[in-house]
Amino acid sequence: MKIAISSDHGGNTLRKEIMGLLEELGFEYEDFGPKDNSSVDYPDYAQPVSEGVAAGKFDKGILICGTGIGMSIAANKVKGIRCALVHDVFSAKATRCHNDSNIIAMGERVIGAGLAREIVAAWLQTDFEGGRHERRIEKITAIEAQN
Fold this sequence. Notes:
Largest sheet: 5 strands, parallel
Number of helices: 6
Structural class: alpha/beta
Helix content: 40-55%
Order of helices and strands: EHEHEHEHEHH
Strand order of the largest sheet: 2-1-3-5-4
Low-confidence stretches: none
């Protein structure tokens, strides 16, 4: 599995923590930055991750900003992306099981590194259940096709 990861300046520290986790778990990843803590605009960092996941270059993506809100909004503008804003393990698992999310967003100013590591590990290790949930994903895809 190949993961795309990025943040803005508000999520830079947590992004580095999560990259360490990905290495520990043996996942291949590509870091889309930023390189330092200078102020940047989150859409500029959400877009390449989202487009890479939507195009199939990456299996999943992880986006981090101060709250996770801006990143999730920007990511969900890309056709084919189901980005979930998560701040707890239950939601991380549920969004994989029920929504087949392909990107998660988190907020560095909302959760600590320990919880973020648990969230990412749970999200990466949880499979989509399919079944009745597949019908719902198809309806989301149909909405995207109308726009």
